[in-house]
């Protein structure tokens, strides 16, 4: 849910400085060093082809799990320097938030998750799953309260989990990974795992441990949207029932998903926008002319 906080970035820079690394010559650390591969699942389509289908009832069943309660600084959710935020008199404070997993059922393709929720082990014994003390301290993990852990959510479906469709790989979206069977593939946007940032020095070891012994991360193979409305769209199952939408900005390979359900379309924005008000009125903390366009198109509709 969170953007990478300024505290994590500062912590990463301090660690680099203490180790004597050359800050300006080194581009940073990747999210994980785990192997990636081109996903065989899904095929690129145009945004207009998706739009022609989305208002038709579809076969996807969705259950959204509020996996845990948490608290985040408002400055990590919206840009408090945005003129509209200033005009509204918004000030920084702790905001209650939740971490979600979305359980997606297809009549023939089976059971998939969008993001992972939270594992009890991650919340109650973070050291045992490789969470570094810097992350535990600065990410307010003491305020993480599990409601429905990932293991219980997966078990509730009563069928094997076929895959995990990630919006992105930030720690609060993969914190249910200790509960996901090791043979289950993870799907991401292009370049998500390899994106280099200084603050990844804090989390790379933990994420490598989470992915240890798992298949290569499966990267969806997008092509440029011929309609020019979005960065790219993947028809995940090839039948127009579930779409992956490339929405870079929060991370390089950030994805949103759109499911056609019997009662209408359901959009999963991940961290393309954090709040309804923030998505429609105020830019996110990462917004800039170069990375905010895809997020704006998804969050304002």
CATH architecture: 4-Layer Sandwich
Our count of helices gives 9
Assigned CATH superfamily = Ribonuclease Z/Hydroxyacylglutathione hydrolase-like
Beta-strand percent range: 15-25%
Taking strands numbered 1, 2, ... along the chain, how are they ordered across the largest sheet? 2-11-9-8-6-5-4-7
Instruction: Please tally the β strands and state the result.
Output: 15
Instruction: Give the domain tally.
Output: 1
Q: Unreliable runs, pLDDT <50, ≥5 residues?
A: 13-23, 287-291
Structural class estimated from helices and strands:
alpha/beta
* CATH class annotation: Alpha Beta
How far is the first residue's CA from the last residue's CA? Answer: 20 Å
Give the topology string: H per helix, E per strand. Answer: HEEEHEHEEHHEHEEEHEEEEEHH
Summarize this structure as a short list of keywords or feature phrases.
eight-stranded mixed beta sheet, 301 residues, Metallo-beta-lactamase, Chain A, alpha/beta, five-stranded antiparallel beta sheet
Describe this structure in words.
- There is one protein chain.
- With 301 residues, the chain is an alpha/beta fold.
- The chain has one domain: Ribonuclease Z/Hydroxyacylglutathione hydrolase-like (Metallo-beta-lactamase, Chain A), CATH 3.60.15.10.
- Helices cover 21% and strands 25% of the residues.
- The strands form 3 sheets. Strands 2-11-9-8-6-5-4-7 form an 8-stranded mixed β-sheet, covered by helices on one side. A 5-stranded antiparallel β-sheet has the order 3-12-13-14-15.
- The chain is globular, with a radius of gyration of 19 Å.
- It starts with 5 loop residues before the first helix and ends with a helix.
């Amino acid at each position: 849910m969170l953007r990478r906080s300024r505290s994590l970035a500062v912590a990463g820079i301090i660690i680099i400085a203490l180790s004597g690394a050359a800050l300006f010559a080194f581009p940073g650390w990747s999210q994980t060093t785990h192997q990636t591969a081109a996903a065989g699942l899904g095929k690129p389509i145009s945004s207009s082809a998706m739009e022609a289908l989305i208002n038709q009832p579809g076969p996807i069943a969705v259950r959204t799990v509020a996996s845990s309660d948490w608290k985040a600084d408002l400055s990590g959710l919206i840009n408090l320097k945005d003129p509209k935020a200033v005009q509204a008199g918004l000030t920084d404070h702790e905001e209650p938030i939740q971490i979600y997993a979305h359980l997606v059922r297809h009549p023939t393709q089976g059971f998939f998750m969008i993001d992972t929720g939270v594992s009890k082990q991650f919340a109650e014994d973070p050291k045992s799953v490789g969470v570094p003390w810097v992350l535990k301290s600065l990410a307010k993990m003491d305020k993480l309260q599990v409601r429905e852990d990932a293991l219980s959510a997966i078990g509730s479906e009563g069928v094997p989990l076929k895959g995990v469709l990630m919006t992105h790989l930030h720690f609060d979206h993969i914190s249910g990974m200790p509960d996901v069977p090791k043979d289950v593939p993870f799907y991401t946007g292009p370049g998500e795992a390899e994106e280099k940032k200084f603050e990844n020095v804090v989390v790379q070891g933990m994420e490598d441990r989470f992915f240890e012994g798992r298949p290569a991360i499966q990267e969806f193979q997008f092509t440029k949207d011929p309609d020019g409305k979005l960065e790219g769209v993947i028809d995940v199952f090839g039948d127009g029932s579930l779409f992956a939408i490339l929405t870079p900005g929060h991370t390089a390979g950030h994805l949103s998903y759109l499911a056609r359900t019997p009662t209408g379309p359901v959009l999963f924005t991940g961290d393309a926008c954090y709040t309804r008000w923030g998505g429609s009125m105020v830019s996110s903390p990462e917004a800039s002319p170069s990375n905010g366009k895809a997020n704006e198109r998804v969050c304002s509709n």
